[in-house]
Amino acid sequence: MSSLSLRISSSVAATARSESDHRLRLLSSSSPTVATSPALHFCGLRTEALKLGANSNRWKVVSAAVAPQNGSASDEFDYNLVIIGAGVGGHGAALHAVEKGWKTAIIEGDVVGGTCVNRGCVPSKALLAVSGRMRDLQDEHHMKAFGLQVAAAGYDRQGVADHANNLASKIRSNLTNSLKGLGVDILEGVGTILGPQKVKYGKVGSSGNVITAKDIIIATGSVSFVPKGVEVDGKTVITSDQALKLEFVPDWIAIVGSGYIGLEFSDVYTALGSEVTFVEALDQLMPGFDPEIGKLARRVLINPRKIDYYTGVFASKITPAKDGKPVMIDLIDAKTKEPKDTLEVDAALIATGRAPFTKGLGLENIRVETQCGFVPVDEHMQVIDADGKLVPHLYCIGDANGKMMLAHAASAQGISVVEQISGKDNVLNHLSIPAACFTHPEISMVGLTEPQAREKAEKEGFEVSVAKTGFKANTKVLAENEGEGLAKLIYRPDNGEILGVHIFGLHAADLIHEASNAIALGTRIQDIKFAVHAHPTLSEVLDELFKSAKVGRTGSLGPEMKSSPILHWLKSTSLVQVWHLLLSKFST
Amino acid sequence: MASPLLSRVSISNATAGNTISFSSSVSNGLLWRRSIAFPDKSSRKVSTVQAKIREIFMPALSSTMTEGKIVSWIKSEGDVLSKGESVVVVESDKADMDVETFYDGILAAIVVGDGEVAPVGAPIGLLAETEEEIAEAKAKASKSGSSAPPPPPAPAAASASPAAPAVAPPKSAASAAVPDGPKKIVATPFAKKLAKQHKVDIGSVVGTGPFGRITPADVEAAAGISPSKSTGVNVVSSVAAAPAPAPVAAAAPKAAASPAPPPIPGSTVVPFTTMQAAVSKNMVESLSVPTFRVGYPVLTDKLDALYEKVKPKGVTMTALLAKAAAMALAQHPVVNASCKDGKTFTYNSSINIAVAVAINGGLITPVLQDADKLDLYLLSQKWKELVEKARAKQLQPHEYNSGTFTLSNLGMFGVDRFDAILPPGQGAIMAVGASKPTVVTDKDGFFSVKSKMLVNVTADHRIIYGADLAAFLQTFAKIVENPESLTL
What we know:
The complex is a heterodimer of chains A (588) and B (488).
Chain A: E1 6-10, E2 30-34, E3 37-44, E4 79-84, H1 88-99, E5 104-108, H2 114-119, H3 121-138, H4 140-146, H5 157-181, E6 185-188, E7 190-195, E8 198-202, E9 209-218, E10 222-224, E11 237-239, H6 240-243, E12 252-256, H7 260-271, E13 275-280, H8 291-302, E14 307-311, E15 313-319, E16 327-333, E17 339-345, E18 347-350, E19 354-356, E20 382-384, E21 390-396, H9 407-421, E22 435-437, E23 442-447, H10 450-460, E24 465-470, H11 475-480, E25 486-491, E26 498-505, H12 508-511, H13 513-521, H14 525-528, H15 540-548, H16 558-587
Parallel strand pairs in A: 1-3, 4-5, 4-9, 5-6, 9-21, 11-18, 12-13, 12-18, 13-14
Antiparallel strand pairs in A: 2-3, 7-8, 8-9, 10-19, 15-16, 16-17, 20-21, 22-23, 23-26, 24-25, 25-26
Chain B: E1 53-57, E2 67-73, E3 80-81, E4 86-91, E5 96-100, E6 105-110, E7 117-119, E8 123-128, H1 132-144, H2 154-160, H3 169-177, H4 189-197, H5 216-223, H6 246-250, H7 274-286, E9 291-299, H8 301-310, H9 317-331, E10 353-355, E11 357-359, E12 362-364, E13 367-368, H10 376-391, H11 397-400, E14 405-409, E15 428-441, E16 447-460, H12 466-481
Parallel strand pairs in B: 10-14, 14-15
Antiparallel strand pairs in B: 1-8, 2-4, 2-7, 3-6, 4-5, 6-8, 9-16, 10-13, 11-12, 15-16
Helix pairs in contact in B: 4-5, 9-10, 9-12
């Protein structure tokens, strides 16, 4: 028996109000697709949720058994799809386009992999992997609690830097090979849109080659944003691009911006022995995080570490170290603009966010005007021109459109666009896209924060409830001696819709997907709370979180509550039967 | 929550969005109710609290909670609190919870400090309504709380409070560290934290870091505590420095290792124990000090004779040598000094002789404190105790890291001379070889056989020069060669 693929699809539709409509159907038993491997199509249970939010949408992507090869374009165009920018977004779109059988090309003016792979998520994870271990080894109390004795931990800066660099090269070559393997044409040079369905690519200044494509996706990404007044010399005043190379570990570094980039670097630098000063323009550190999670994170990630901070201030001028002087940072009040202070530090990292990279794209050729540099798009990622009209056959995904500046969001948008082009109406639900900050411990989130949810509730007139679970009671957490953590669920008590989940704690970034998948699939709390989690695992934190939510108690869903234990029993017994059936098939 | 101690109770999410509450839709609110109570004076009969000083109580965070542990105080003494602000984090069995104040006021005193435990309802802090009441509250705190930390000087608290109300708590810390005075104070984040923790006025600390900034070490020095980093075992090597450690010398302070040659097949790799790692670290650190060595022959016939006499009384050779060294050091204080920063002499007020002892798998230096002042018998007694403690690994830090001069003796193995490495933080170390019968000629040309011992001192040439060391050795030799004074 070589391989068995088990596809579980849904057949049972039930609304939150009428769960008694649950039905079990065993649709088909076995239908061999490859001679030796029977594929079992087994229909399980799924609750068809009420579609309440306008943007709730389900993926219907079924992975194909055999990866298709790059298709051939029609005679009219050179390609079915041309993607400008081979970052994670472009890569995701290209792979999905090939799956559709389209002839696809990807234009890259720099290196394959884009920001994420070369100057972002990927190398930073390598540094954070090191910082996590350094933290563990340096925490004598923690080690003692395990009964471990560890000699003073030290590190070799170059070794750490090499690890980050090697990881980036490895992922870059994986990405390149996967594109080449599928037959995607990688065209080198800067891509410029000449007109509808027409792109030029080539070295800057050269005449370049012109190609035509039925559809074009802009996926040019972003670059580090450097505010004016800041002089980046790449040595003592740096952006994440240079910081990831870890060319030196300063004794004292100021990090301008306390978003997730700044936070992650503070984790790296403090683990390697630096002291850190945050400069944040807003009144609180970690803007953008759920306030409660932010508060706990401050207590764990900032207060006990060698970190101090200035909030409500702008760094109006940053001068690199020179002529025997340290790096000078002039701080002004964010509101009154009055000078507040001057910092003298050994280095400054500018982590004030990212700016879209759309220069040289030739947007003027198709009458598109950027908004603060971002390419305006509609909910289908289709580009909108200066007159507010949709530009046919032109899409923009990822950081360049600014909807959600995350690598996996770009990729999801790319796949959504390919679906849309292939004729399937597809709107990506951005509220189902998780985000994570890889500090130690990690922070992750999906959906709305509590204030956002309450604001929405006020407008739309529904009730919001919050459930929370600490990590302290989880067995695995206690075994790991990592008790600090909180999972928070924001939901509608009337119908059990998950509005947001926020996690701070060990492996939070890996835990969030149960929640994000639930949001993406429209699963309600009253259903997911019956899902079984292996014991003892960290995922039981979410299990407990869902179970602690009180759905229907304040609303009018009494009957549902009564019927659900029976349903639960029904489901489990039926499933057991199905499993037995399956097992008997396997064994024969 | 019918406890008479709790005058007001806040229940879960009813008041603020940031309260800790597990499942805010719980109607009975039994478990995760959060409360803090400052009793009104009217409702509290027992207390003799003056008009506007309120007690902050250990809240009951669950129906079963009997006592709570303070994780940390978010606010410090002297901070101005406004209603609804989080003040303290209390640990329950499931999570740490923020507890907020119900009243505006000034946190006058913390009665139960970070990490301490208090029963539910016990006062954990005092809240004053006005500045004038702070002193009163403090007095009360010092009376009531036995575990209360010593209150900081009142002016510090008072000066910090008036400006603070509108400022967020972390900022008040930052701005307190950077006063508007004419002198610009630059202190690193950790230095500021330490200053706050040890209640050191950062304005009075002299910065020795780059660009004159105040480093954590400066604050620690000002607070009179030993640097936290080097609390490891203070060890010296009395082993001959045979392999030239030149490549290590070139390494940057933080660099861990240059690539080592591949191990010979069949070899085993054994990681350092904590003590061995401390030795290794100290040895590498010692390379930053420019040292030199001066040797000196000492005749020991008379010392040996004295030793035979006092041996029955429990006197050891180590005690004799330590006493002799201490007496010589008393006359040459510079050899007992140390150079901490490359700019100054640090003259030590006492003469503490550290003596290197090999113990199973390691090396430690028990310290004979005030060796010049104690008599030989007391010193021997003390030494015996120290060695026993060292073997049992029960030496307290001050018993092994307070040395001002080190003695290392390998004479018992028949070693005639060797060269010691200077331990960090000290000015000199003496390596003592075996005393051996040697043919000597006196000034008249007569041969005789005398016991001769070679001593070799390694010293920090930044503060101790050749002539200093030579003079010291001459004194030492005189004392050893005429040892009567040792028994005085």
